[in-house]
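Homework help board

Subject: predicted structure for assignment chain

Our instructor gave us this sequence and asked us to write out the predicted structure in token form, then describe one feature. I got the tokens but I'm not sure how to describe them. Can anyone check?
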Amino acid sequence: MKMAKDKDKKTRKPNKNTFNKNTAKENRKAVSKCEGTANSSAQNRPNVVIDQPPRVMDQKEEKALLKTAKAMYKEKQYNQCLEICKTILNCNAKCYFGFLLSGLCYIFLNEYTEAKKCLKAAVEIQPDDVSGWKGLEMYYDTFNFNDIFYVEVLRKLIQVEKDNRKERTLKLFKSLDNLGKTEEALSELFAYLGDVNDESEVVNSYEIMLKKDLVSFDAQLKYAEFCQKHFLTKNALIEGLALRQRNDKDLEFSIQLFRLMGHAYIDVMSDEMDIDTSIIDKCEEYLFDNFDNMTVRRNDVGFVFMALIESLREINDFRYDKAIEILNVIFRGVENNDINMIRFGERSIYSHLPALCDYIPYRFEIGIFLTEAYLLKHDYSGAQEVAEEVVELNLGLNTRPGYYILRLHLAEIYRELQLNYEKAKEICNQILSQNNLSLSERIKQRAKTCLALLHAQDGEAASGLELLIQDESCYEVHCARAQCYLLMGKLQEASAEATAATELNHDDDAQAHYLMGETLRLIGEQPNEALTELLQACKLNAYSAPAFFSLGQLLWLTEGPTKKALECFKWAVHLRPYDRVIVRALSDRYASLGMNDENMDLLERSADYRQFEPWTWALREFGMYQLLEANNLTKAVKAFQRLCPSPAEVTEDGDLVSLDLLAESYYRQGNSPTASRIWKQYCKFKPDLYRLMRLGDALQKSRRFEEALETYSCIDEEHWAPLYGTGHTYVYKARVAFRSWCAAIQPLERAFQLKPSALLVEKTLADAQFAMAVYKQPNPILWASKAWQHYLKCWSRIGRYPAVICGQLARSMGDVATYLCNTPDNDLDDQLRKVGRPALKALRRATRLEPDDISNWIAFGVAAARLRKPRLAQHCFIKAILLDKENPQGWTNLGVLYLEHKNYDLAYECFHTAQNMSATYGHSWYGMGLLSEIVKQPDKTLDIFKESCHLTLQRSIIYNYGLRFCEDLVECIKEHGHADCINMKELLFLVEILPPVICLFYSNPMTLNNLGILLEFQGDHAGAYKAYNE
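My token output:
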């Protein structure tokens, strides 16, 4: 051990004395290529045969020796460096730098076998240190060797070092190619090209690395596919077109070439690339000519891809409907059925279509082409739906120009449809702010023009003009400026811009002609020139709605309301059913010509098309027409419901007008409860007199009388209308409950004083006064006479009122005349002359005005019968029967007339016929009961009266039934000494219904005595005592 220690000292001493510190420092600076920083140890033993170390070297000594070896290597003293490294490796067989420096020295000493062993050992010890891999690269470059390990070395260096990647990729490409691994060589090449952003760099790299080293059709095809994949579309098309010349094309190569050309063509069309037209034409010619040959290999080429190419062929041939059909199928997907058959193409090719619900390839491109197909068809709604769906799908393609072109389409659609202006402006601003994308100047100009026109259409024409004022003059800019000036009303400036656009209109575009014609039309000085320009615009573009609209306006102004002008308006509406200006203009023309049906059809279709605020006028006009003129209340309700879908949620700032019209529609429809609820909501915010009146009317028709009276009392001002409403409520309430007639008189009289010309007020007052007479109030003759005088005054003004009011008034006059003529205190002949004749004249006039109204004929007949005109009465009843033979009312009244004149057989036939027609019509039973009583059939009489009373609670029927019941009751007591044979259920029924009838209509000693008897049997002794006492 001592000898080994002395030997170690001797070994270190000459090394220490040979180099001083300055020499070591200079040597350390000189070493560059082989120095490294890694300190990790290799996991496996190096593949170099090393003698077993006789001793262990400490780290300080090892570092000193390595420093010396590096200095020797720098001084190109390779043998001395190898000796030192051998010494180190004898002591430490895992010394990374020992193997690294040894391998480098062996390279310079042309010992390639030992060099490779040492360098491989170095990278096995520290595989992450780049110096070892560089040494191996130097080894292979020096000795020009090539094996699979060289490929591994180059891939490692490409992975860890980005410098010199191009040169190493070329080395790797050559190595793999020489080893016969052509596919791997091309993959490595295209992996490098995919990371290159500069197109010229890619082309140069291809020229340098590919064409000079591997010239073949396969390489050319792979390069073209690479270019297409990385959107170097022009290069892909050029290479693909060149490959068409290959003569020995097999089927697989043909499929690959067809897919390449198809993909490139799809990219060109979707991203709207600026490529020479001749190249695009050749591409289309190749694709469409070879399409039918490829359909037999549809599944090999790709079903969706082939369908997409076919749709583009249909678009190219102007068959937009067919293209839309194909694109919709592959865009929406299909159900996952066992067999999916889709018919495509002119040859009716059937193909098994895989389920496309989970993943649809090319969906972004399909969406773009489907949108464009709809636009070419001028179906903006369909285009909007598809474009919004594709944008919402968020397919992660926002780095492609096509994504922003699609969004630009969407903004232009919004501008055309006149909606979502803010969103459209946002889209245009985003496109204009994109500086990193290769968007063409044409696309950016389109975005700016669209943004300017959006501002102009949104009422900010000056802002839109500012966007275009600095732009370089071109045709599109002049047109946009002219549109802005037209919207601003600056006709001279618009004329100048339209003139400039016309001068640049080398393609004879319709827009320039339209703008010039519209400007001249608005100026109004040159109508013939305006007509010429507009006709030319319509001729060039039959889908230009503004041009046809302007032409229609000009023709209407110069030639009048001709059929030609109207057709222009109609075609403009057909093209733009969403343009409220055009629709309203046509609606006004229809209205001026009295074409109400056409107008309402137009408004209904227009209202259905759009449901946002600017279209409320269409729904409102349609609803008002149906409400006020057509009397189609169902359509009116539907129209106003669309304007107010939730009436209870309408606020003070909401659409109160439509809310009021909705309530009015319900009210006229007979749905008073719903109308009252809606008017209550309206009156929360705007409680004006008219709506409070309508609310009160709806409440009283809903039989909510107390709420109606409370509503009328909310009207502070003294106006005839609320007073009339209050009185009318009491009248309506009295008709239901036999009360409130007295309460109705005062407000109605006050309303009549305030508004003596209101016929309905005076008629309602007369109704109340006549009711006072009928219900046995004090001075009944006086009340009836007052009512008659009011009815006469109303009849003198009846001429301008509807026939319905005339009939109501005539029937009321007949009732009063009958009452006055049958009063014992009056002179009958005098009353017939003063009252009867005017009443009969009024009824005759009512029947003439409404000859098909049965109620007028029956009222006329009843009045004639009571006023001693039996033949006239018979004529009236027979006329009513002829109008409706199934109506029991006419037969019953005719039977009563025969009964009064003792023609019992005919009376029986009439009553029997009425009973057969309606078993529930109580008056026919009552007539039969009167007949039974006259012909002395007492057993049947009471049963018939009972049946009629259960069917109809009419006062005369109740009275007669009660009278006969009491008579039978008295007879039963006289005969048996008790009333056990009496039906107590019927007794209780009579006690319930008879008292109000007796008190109001038949208050005399006999009836009161009968009432007392009934109450006494019921056990109500207090009530019976009161009746007997009265």
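Reply (TA_rk): Your tokens look well-formed. For the description, you could write something like this. The mean pLDDT is 76. That's the kind of observation they're looking for.
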